[in-house]
Structure prediction request, 146 residues.
Amino acid sequence: MFTAGGSKRGRTAGLGVIGAAVLALALAGCASGAESGADPSTTASGESGDAVGVVGVWGDADAQNTPSLVFAEDGTVTGTDGCNRLMGSWTADGGTVEFAPLVSTRMACEGVDTWLSGGASGTWTDTELVVLDGSGTEIGTLERSE
Prediction:
């Protein structure tokens, strides 16, 4: 596509094609659960017999150094462990949610407990999300904000 000795114009055009391909792949991966063939009963709130569902904001998303998660209806989850940004996808069944997997940035933040980055699943009520690690051990809770 471009070589070390190639012209600047050739390198720029080659990078543009690569950038467009990466963007197209990223957008294709962002398709909603319904468009991608996912079972909507496991991704949308209230679809598994739970009237409130997990969709919404848990924790204070506006506070600094404070963990929070935002569950979207399309099956994506974003948030922070108080230091690092978290992102991933989720599925729910009844009052249980599974994170598939949460990925995060890896910044070092002094004095911040980053327990939420170890979350693998959780259970929720109308007001509280209990976060569990991969072994099913409770590692923390978040209160519903919205």
Observations:
- The longest strand covers residues 85-93.
- The two ends are 49 Å apart (CA to CA).
- The longest helix spans residues 8-29.
- The mean pLDDT is 74.
